[in-house]
Amino acid sequence: MTSAASPHLFDAVILGAGAAGLFCAARAGQRGLKVLLIDHAEKVAEKIRISGGGRCNFTNRDLDVRAPQRHFVGENPHFCRSALSRYTPADFVALVQSHGIGFHEKHKGQLFADRSAEDIIQMLLAECERGGVTRWQPCRVGSIRFLASGPAESSTSSYQIESDRGPVLARSLVVATGGLSIPKIGATDLGYRIAQQFGLPVVTPRPGLVPLTFDGEAWAPYAGLAGLALPVDMSTGQGKQRTHFVEDLLFTHRGLSGPAVLQISSYWREGEPLQIDLAPGVDLGARLLEAKQHSRKRIANELAALMPHRLADAWAERDAQWQRPVNEAADKALQRLAESLSRWQLVPSGTEGYRKAEVTLGGVDTRALSSQTLEAKAQPGLYFIGEVVDVTGWLGGYNFQWAWSSAAACAEAL
Ligand code: FDA
Predict the structure, then answer these.
(1) For residue 178, how far is its CA from the centre of ligand 1 (angstroms)?
(2) Is the C-beta atom of 363 inside 6 A of ligand 1?
(3) Average pLDDT, the chain
(4) SS3 of 310, please?
(5) pLDDT by residue (tens digit) across 146-173?
(6) Cβ(12)–Cβ(412) under 8 Å?
(7) Which atom of ligand 1 is the closest one to the Cα of 57?
(8) 47 CB near ligand 1 (under 6 Å)
(9) Hey, what's the signal peptide range on this chain (predicted)?
């Protein structure tokens, strides 16, 4: 990469042709700006392609645009409000409809493409085309310099970006390089490095929406339950910090997964316990004591009327007093059993890491950015959008909506 050649001139250079980068490029281009979109990956928008099981859960209808922070995690959950209330799920749905893409609601407001995530990618590429966006891909990015006085023909400051297709000069630089999740499809820390280069703080990144793991020995009694799924109420934290989700839990060979665990993983902190109610909405103690009055069935069989058979069997095996007919069990033993199922406490040893995480928590500290425009407060012309920012949504389309909304807010300001 050399800067000997004369630079290509653009109004804005956007790094990262993922969800946020493509959408920002399209909207800025459609405003009449000369936009260059650069990505080092061979294929465009790989994360959209693999999202939502290949159908892309592109937004969520339940997002309350007056209080969107409820569905987002970050050091300043209110930061996301401005962008999300100005470009809403309804706006993105209108765009999807204008391209004739069929979609459906699955669960709790989650909207998916009927056919394929590829339809969403093609829509974004068509929008870029309409905006006359230039896309360089694959293209490696080298050093980045801020030229305070700007090029001779312009009176403004600018950014000089070295790339393996030559140097580029632009008034604005938009960083949309995402987080660290799924490195094998192109995730890198470039966005965090650019933030640090320009003196912006970065909240330490960590994997989010990720399965949780347990020590081999501690997990041995449950490993046989791998593949079992059931609805649970799962919580972490104490008092006002307590967060809980009622969703499905999935047992795996190494630990726990499923929507309940992915959601709670974004709030869980290393060393903290999780509490799980394996029969939410059921008063297990009362049901077992009542069964004791008229039933001679084994305890595991009574339990199996209230939860999956495999779980009931595995649980009853944990204590000799639970391996007998219910009418022969002591009240205290039944109550202890009920309690162990409705307040199962366990401490994960870790997570499956970025290899399996759907998102990266942390990122560019929102205190250093304008919530209106996503521009760095102390660095004119430098913007951060999408997942690279310390704004992380719940599972269910919230992360793509943040990508669309932050991109739209930035494109308006470029
Ligand atoms: P994104 O990761 O999309 O794009 C970043 C781009 O930057 C990539 O194209 C990358 O190649 C490029 N880049 C990185 N480093 C670079 C470098 N050094 N040089 C040049 N380019 C570089 N969310 C949701 O709302 N609904 C869903 O259904 C799902 N499903 C889902 C499934 C799976 C398996 C994963 C991993 C994630 C999801 N997500 C999701 C999360 C969602 O995919 C994610 O939040 C958005 O893609 C973030 O958009 P960004 O544009 O910020 O980053």
Answers:
(1) 5
(2) no
(3) 95
(4) helix
(5) 998 755 545 567 999 999 999 999 999 9
(6) no
(7) 28
(8) yes
(9) none
